[in-house]
Amino acid sequence: MAPLFFPQLEELIIYDCNKLSTLPESPVLTHLVCIGYTEDRLVSMNMPLYSWPSLTSLKVGLLANMVFPPEDQQIQSPRPLETLRSLEVKSDYGFISTFSLPAHLDCFTVVEELVISNCSNIVRWPLVELRCLARLRSLHISHCTNLGQEVLEGSSSEENLPLLQLERLSIQFCDSLTRIPILPTSLEQLDISHCRSVVALPSDLGNLAKLKELYVLDCDQI
Predict the structure, then answer these.
(1) Which of 16, 52, 196, 222 has the most CB atoms less than 10 A away?
(2) pTM of the full predicted structure?
């Protein structure tokens, strides 16, 4: 059966459709949300990234197979997600679907806003994934309860957050987190809330000359 084609579809929101296996093609789609609230996902949904050349906002929270064009067409086709500015990753499935393959990371180089939430499979700072987001300005991490449980082997010093254009960082409800990485000097707003295992503020806090707003809430160990 030929794939569905919606030439005027601009916004598509899908919740808990566990048997849905593929998404339609649409040249003007700008906003896509695919979320699954149940754990018994039956199939991996195909997401044809190359079919949405206008996509600016993407939210993924289920098991998905992000489909790229064949190698012999990649040079001629528009690069996937060139217009994407906002990316939200929700749940373990969402993180795996978005960041599991190195080829995926090249698609997110123009993203400016990233939200990561409810990902219990993250046990350390995802530095490799973040390093590919060179234009990221806003990062929000919340309800990642195991973040910070694992420290990189052989790491003798604090980790550096590799986001040279980052302006806003929010970390909330990450119960296992004990320390914050060294932050980029571009940071203007920092929010650390409900992280009850954090024992100290970032060591380079005094070097953040552009910092305008600092929120620290319900961090009992500081």
Answers:
(1) 52
(2) 0.90
